[in-house]
Amino acid sequence: MHNVENKFNGKIAILKHNLLKGSIPSIKHDFVFQESNKSGMDYLEIKKNLQKKYILKKDIKKGNTIQKKDFKKARVGIAIVCRLDSSRLKNKALRKIGSLTSIEYCIKNVLKLDFIDDVILATSKNKDDEKLKNYTFNERVKFFRGSKNDLLKRILDVSEKNNLDVICRVTAD
Predict the structure, then answer these.
(1) How confident is the model at residue 35 (pLDDT cuts 50, 70, 90)?
(2) If pLDDT is split at 50, 70 and 90, which confidence band does 85 have?
């Protein structure tokens, strides 16, 4: 990789095509690196931003350079989706595995990730799912209740409520 870095050393990144707000640029596919009198980021600067999980905070047009101010750190969240009314095994997320429930193991493992801004236990508005609030395991875990039957809507609502740029879905059991 050092040969690539040396090849682009001192050259400015120029966009090959339009990029939209919220995009994660690809060094390989989105830029051409060339000497320019324009100000902008070079290969190493862009690489560092991408390693830090930065995304574009505005649309940028083809032919423009990219500036540090054009990036923002992505807010990343994990939605742990869980309901208790499974037809095959009711309350399976509350079943003990050793000393913890299945949902507690799931949350404990998700909390080990260091790049996550929010962890949300996302369940339905069904009254039986209210008891999941007692199993968030950690004060860093938020509790959310949304649509029972429309899982995608529930996840999108979690993302919107928590102002997330990236959301990962994890099943609780």
Answers:
(1) confident
(2) confident
Question: What secondary structure does DSSP assign to 95-145, as a single string?
Answer: -EETTEEHHHHHHHHHTT-SS-SEEEEEEES-GGGGGGGGG--STTEEEEE
> To the nearest 10°, the Cα dihedral for 112, 118, 124, 125?
130
Whether the model pTM is above 0.85: no
Reduce the DSSP state of residue 80 to 3 states and report it.
Answer: strand
When comparing pLDDT for 86 and 155, which is higher?
A: 155
Q: Residue 16's closest CA among 33, 34, 2, 30?
A: 30
Q: Tell me how far CA of residue 48 lies from CA of 27, 45, 73, 131, in angstroms.
A: 11, 5, 12, 43
Whether the per-residue pLDDT at 26 is higher than 60: the answer is yes
Helices (H) and strands (E) in the chain, counts: 5, 10
* Residues in CB range of 68: below 8 A, 6 or more apart: 41, 45, 49
The amino acid that residue 102 corresponds to is: S
